[in-house]
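pasting for the record
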Amino acid sequence: MKQHILYLIFFPGCISCNGQKPMGTELMKLEKVIEMPGLDGRIDHMAINIKDNIIYVAALGNNTVEVVDLNKGVLIHSIKGIEEPQGIAYIPEQNEIAVAGGDNGDCVFINAATFKTVATIRLNSDADNIRYDADERKIYVGYGNGGIALLDPASHKQTGNVKLSAHPESFQLDKKNNRMYVNLPDANSIAIIDLKNFTLVHTWNTNKYKANFPMTLDTSHNLVFIGYRHPAMLVGYNSNDGREIYTNELAGDADDIFYDEAKQEIFATGGDGSINIFKKINDSSYKKIADIPTRQGARTSLLIPSLQTFVVAERAANGKSAALAVYRINAE
């Protein structure tokens, strides 16, 4: 078992802010930075075992999954042998980790106690984002040149598939309306899948916005929020008909956005080195209330609402080790 030193870091001044304090720094406090020494390259998505407060990190550039104890602030294990891990999900009922491999398209199930591989499902190529529906006990995986696979985590078998016009990036489940929304940046569109019949039912064109990678939902108000990179914009759509109803500037090179229903806030991270927070003003409008500097390239993150914690994955750069920056979200 690996043990690494935890460093407490005070929030630094922002060199690029012309001497002004970055907006919204009072909304989050940087509690700790958990270093992951020897970790090179890009870091992709994360998942949490909330019972034990363990975070699983898809270290794509290192071909490993890093296992981090959030309470102790230490890296406790590195799971090797997974080719380009991208999407990741924790399955509490089985105490397993499902990891999507971008290189060979494998979805690998790993025992979270022993870190041994339990099963592997081959999905053609480029397995990417994963969503686990705990109520239905279903796993959805985006993969290849255009597909969403439906997997049964109990039997470790594929039970369904929907073909799409391009490789899927982030997608989200709208259980209220029995829909799945899927970003297809290479096709400049958003696909809508009927969850009951598991079929493609509609496609929205993204028009002037390009590179739609991250996505989050406000299902209470029937809103789909998409993060675009060209231009860097957060765009809100009516989930029923795809009408654009909201726009705001977004952190550049964004790869993760999250909606906190209790606080009615959207959290986003961009590879340009910033965290954005948007606050709900009314049913169709949000105001940007934070633009907090982070490390360049830190574009993936994880919101843990039950802990009021926001974790940002920082890749190794400029002599600094890869790390998880753990922020405590301040109560209002």
